[in-house]
Amino acid sequence: MALSLDTIGPDSNVEALQRPDSVMPPESRLEMPTQSLRHWSASQERKAIVKHPRMGTWLARLFVFGGGLLLTGYGTYEMYQVVSVSRTTILQWVLVALFTVNFSWIAVAFTSALLGFFALLRQPKTPAGPPSSLSHRTAIVMPVYNEQTSRTYAALEAIFESVEATGLGAHFDYFILSDTTQPDAWIAEERAFLALRERLGPHARFYYRHRAKNYHRKAGNIADFVTRWGGHYEHMLVLDADSLMTGECITRLAAAMEADPDSGIIQSLPLIINRNTLFARLQQFAARVTGPVIATGLAVWMGRDGNYWGHNAIIRTKAFADHGGLPDLKGKPPLGGHILSHDFVEAAFLRRAGWSVYMLPDLVGSYEESPPSLIDLSARDRRWCQGNLQHSRVIGAKGLKLPTRQHFATGIMSYLASPFWLFQLIVGIALVLQTTYIRPEYFARDFRLYPVWPRFDPERALALFALTMGILLAPKIFGLILMLLRGKDRRASGGAIRLVVSSVIEITLSALLAPILMLIQSGSVFQILLGRDTGWQPQRRDDGSIPLKDIIRRHRSHTVLGVLAGLSAFMIATSLFLWMSPTILGLLLAIPLSWLSGQLGAGLALKKIGLLMTPEEHAPPSIATRANELQVRNAAFGFDDEDGLKALFEDDALRQRHADMLPPATLRKRGVIETERALAEAKLVDAETIDDAIAWLHPKERMVLLHDRALLDRLVHLKKAPTAGVKAAE
Predict the structure, then answer these.
(1) What is the separation of C-alpha 380 from the centre of its chain, rounded to a whole number of angstroms?
(2) Residue 719: phi, psi to the nearest 5?
(3) CA distance 339 to 393
(4) How far apart are the C-alpha atoms of 687 and 531, rounded to whole Å?
(5) Which of 156, 167, 182, 248 is deepest in the core (most CB within 10 A)?
(6) Per DSSP, what are the bridge partners of residue 172?
């Protein structure tokens, strides 16, 4: 029978929610209805309990969007003046239109960063301390999908220790929610979980659940937890497999949620740590220097109409259950089906229902990691691209707040900006080509006295280019200024000179990588518009090295395009070649840059001489140090390296615990034969030894076996493989 929160206090948590032999607490179900995109009434929106002042937020929005509009208007006017020296052609109008779209995007980013810069200059130096007490219970949930158990369990154990150190640990329970589809990884998770529970004692507040089918992926994983066990917890704190959060950060989030009865989601700002490859350290440095400026600007103008990034955030469980149920989009993927970028939509639905969603960017102690190489980033980016473009089907949903629609538009534009930039380059080349090689039409049908010949104002063009570059680089400059002004951060980053040199390196390499990412993202957009779906592959966390042949295969088209663009531009006009030289150079270097991006040696070499250093790298957070120590210890257990079937075969207790953790078996419908199960059973019947089973069973058949108690019983009756000595005697 499910337990009620009314009868469970934080002090009675251990006895009420957990039996020593239980891997999950009793269910306490919450309904999670699917939300509608087409139907919504204002009467369904809850009324705020506390009246929150909004004038500052609206003034900030006026500054950001009004300033962005003025900048865009000025940029568009200057661009028109550049091309209107003579009568303007259709291609020139197209160029002006593309420029306006691209410039508006960076103009709003600039004014938002400028707002964040001013806010950080005024920010108090001493943040509030941790809370002394809490009243409600919070579930800390970590969804995992084919991850390395030594890493994920180390992170969760380090978080547990940090929370316990605050003295408020009794208010938090920990859930590993597995959607793993690789059989060996699944058994490794179970072994790591059981070992963790044994180390921490029979009443450790850790739970583990594995889903047989990863329906709706991460969003479905969280929804399954909420609908089955969410009733026990007032709040849930959602992590990613690479997340780390200090106990102080977590308890402050919980206290902020308790202090604000209107809050539905409170998002922290995770900083990137633990990165060593060149590409990852570039991202780590950029996120540390520029990230707070951008995030603070967003937090100021978004106010209580904020967004959710899917992890390192605390959520009011009942509000999420009532309004976070995602609908499937009509049609097939990639633009139909399950919503991949679920976090934006969940935040939109909670905000529509009257719950506040906001960010605390000054909250320290929230961390994450980043992809180790350019190719790893592009693989993750492909999925995000599809998810954000799906938002074009959601942005018009009834009842959404205007800032919410702006969040969707920003997410969509973050990927459409690449093809717009590509089109602008193509149109610019076409215009120069037209000016250089196409003979003017002297005898046009409208009997003009002079030919229509595209001309440009070179001085205005140069000034506009300088303005555009200034706006693009301004957020990085703002972040650098703040780091230089803050003595502690400046010294921890290697001093002023190293900090400036590091910023130059980051800007230079980012500029060279930008055209490669532009083509990658443009290709993703075109693939999605052509109907090509993406999968959901597990992310690589550590090693960025990729075989050179794979790098060449992924980037050869970029290199060829760089060669063609360079030759064409040089043949058309030297000025065009110089104008396009950053883009051409980046494409020509695509293969070596991508290879270099994933190299540990390159990243560590810069680290050794104090470049691309962050304060968190100079003095690692204690929780990161502890997590790394625990990962080394966990790796020594060897759970990730052992064959799952063999582990179950050799350990009767493990096999029994595994069977106990399985959900109740479902009855097979008569006449319906499951192919994988039939094959698994046939192979087990033929197998004489465990080595036969290991060699013959394919991954899908292994997963069927691991879900089936009857097949597990057959596994027990296999023989052990003969030892080398026995084989020699035979």
Answers:
(1) 8
(2) -90, 155
(3) 10
(4) 44
(5) 156
(6) 138
Tokens of 275: 């990165």
Residue 442, both tokens: 């002297």
Q: What are the start-end ranges of the E strands in 388-530?
A: none
CB 50 within 8 A of CB 43: no
How many angstroms separate the CA atoms of 715 and 705, rounded? 9
354, 47 Cβ separation under 8 angstroms: yes
Torsion angle of alpha carbons 687, 689, 693, 694, nearest 10°? -160
Q: What is the pLDDT of residue 361?
A: 95
Cα(204)–Cα(181) distance, integer angstroms: 27
Q: Which amino acid is at 304?
A: R
Q: Within a 10 A sphere around the Cβ of 598, how many other Cβ atoms?
A: 24
* Run of H or E including 175: strand 172-178
Which one-letter DSSP state was computed for residue 341?
A: S
**Nearest residue to 337 (alpha-carbon basis) of 347, 327, 329:** 329
Q: What is the DSSP letter of 34?
A: B
User: Could you tell me the two tokens for 373?
Assistant: 């190489």
Burial of residue 522 (CB within 10 Å: 0-12, 13-18, 19+) is buried
CA–CA dist 63, 60 (Å, integer): 5
Rounded CA separation 338/328 (Å)? 5
For residues 205 and 106, give the distance between their C-alpha atoms in angstroms, rounded to a whole number. 47
CA distances from 670 to 122, 213, 419, 704 (A): 71, 22, 53, 18
As a whole number of angstroms, the distance between CA 668 and CA 715 comes to: 21
Pairwise CA distance, residues 508 & 374, whole Å: 15
Coil/strand/helix, residue 478:
helix
Helix axes 574-588, 548-572, angle to 10 degrees: 180
Neighbours of 20 (CB within 10 A): 10
Backbone angles phi, psi at 144, to 5 degrees: -130, 150
Question: What sign results for the dihedral spanned by CA atoms 184, 185, 186, 192?
Answer: positive
Q: Which residues contact 586 (CB under 8 A, 6 or more apart)?
A: 511, 512, 513, 514, 515, 516, 562, 593
Which residue from 469, 470, 441, 471 is spatially nearest to 453, judged by alpha carbons?
Answer: 441
User: Which of 278, 351, 330 lies closest to 598 in space, CA to CA?
Assistant: 278
Alpha-helical segments (H) within 175-290 = 183-200, 217-229, 247-259, 278-289
**What's the number of CA atoms in the CB half-sphere (13 Å) around residue 28?**
19
pLDDT along the chain (730 residues), means of 10: 37 49 89 97 94 93 98 95 76 92 96 97 76 96 96 97 96 97 97 95 89 94 98 98 97 98 98 94 97 97 97 98 97 94 97 98 95 92 95 97 96 96 89 68 50 64 90 97 96 96 97 96 95 72 76 95 88 78 93 94 95 95 97 96 95 95 86 90 94 95 95 89 53
CB–CB of 513/593 below 8 Å?
yes
Residue count of the chain, please give it: 730
Whole-number CA gyration radius for the chain: 29
Q: Residues of 304-323 as b/e, b for ≥16 C-beta within 10 angstroms? A: bbbbbbbbbbbbbbbbbbbb
